Amino acid sequence: MQTTSNASTNSPPPAIVHDQQLAIEHLKSQLRKSQSMAALGELTSTATHEFNNVLMTIINYARLGIRNRDDESRDKALSKILAASERAAKITTTILAQARNRSESLEPTDLAAIISDTLVLLEREMNKYRISVTTQFDPETKPALVSGNQIQRVLLNLLINARQAMGEGGELLVRLQPSSESGYVELTVRDSGSGIPQETLPNIFDPFFTTKSGPDESGKGGTGLGLAACKEIIDAHSGRIRVESTVGVGTAFTIRLPIANGNQAAA
Ligand SMILES: Nc1ncnc2c1ncn2[C@@H]1O[C@H](COP(=O)(O)OP(=O)(O)OP(=O)(O)O)[C@@H](O)[C@H]1O
Ligand SMILES: [Mg+2]
């Protein structure tokens, strides 16, 4: 005779399973919120450094303008101050946009603008390590159906990894183009860094996999969560992320994301 007692079976009753599933969903959504807050924190700290740097430029050129009374020096000082102030405004706009748009919803998004904004935040860091940054935006590229915030997080992770792989001097290419597969756009971040050995390539997207001993002098890196987060975000966008790497030559990460056509945008 089969027992009817639940205690003797391994599967809990459906009501409990349902409760557990709800609890898991709740925890997952809490985790996503904390991840997005942590990413905002990281972005804010990067931006604060950048902002401070811009302020130093403004202060120094204002001093120069006060010291030198001739028209030529003053014109030069004022145009430098204007350019730096415009950069400062761009930095705060980027942060405010991230902080304001917490919905994380998918919208038709111009990825070229996201790339440019993100590079503004890392300009000082790239200059410091003498990394030359090239962008190639194919004007034929259609807007993608993405959460701009999340894709910016992916980009920051990839760009910081690339910078860390290059040390002093190096070449970074960020390219945006229509994908060879129709209905998709393709974003590539290519560096001339150390490369990734064949045997570690399968592990790089695993959570907590890292070859870094801890944060570097700019306070970044070392938890091994960057690429795991990138993969999770790209999967949630029904996209794909892949990597090609040669030790001693460099690494390229390529992301494929769906374009926003009329139907998707309305969904
Ligand atoms: N562009 C790259 N060039 C060389 N190695 C890379 C590159 N990107 C990632 N890696 C390797 O993959 C590992 C995992 O990267 P991931 O971004 O997930 O973690 P991390 O950078 O070590 O730490 P963090 O959580 O701070 O990002 C790195 O430790 C590094 O060994
Ligand atoms: Mg990383």
Automatic annotation (TrEMBL):
UniProt key word Flavoprotein: no
InterPro entries: HATPase_C_sf (IPR036890), HATPase_dom (IPR003594), His_kinase_dom (IPR005467), HisK_dim/P_dom (IPR003661), HisK_dim/P_sf (IPR036097), Sig_transdc_His_kin-like_C (IPR004358)
Domain Histidine kinase: 46-261
Signal peptide location: none
Domain of life: Bacteria
Catalytic activity entry: ATP + protein L-histidine = ADP + protein N-phospho-L-histidine
E.C. code: 2.7.13.3
Keyword Transferase attributed: yes
Keywords: ATP-binding, Kinase, Nucleotide-binding, Phosphoprotein, Transferase, Two-component regulatory system
PROSITE patterns documented for this protein: HIS_KIN
MF GO annotations: ATP binding; phosphorelay sensor kinase activity
Root EC class: transferase
PANTHER family named in the record: C4-DICARBOXYLATE TRANSPORT SENSOR PROTEIN DCTB, SENSOR HISTIDINE KINASE
Protein name, entry field: histidine kinase
Species whose genome carries this gene: Stieleria varia
Annotated gene: virA
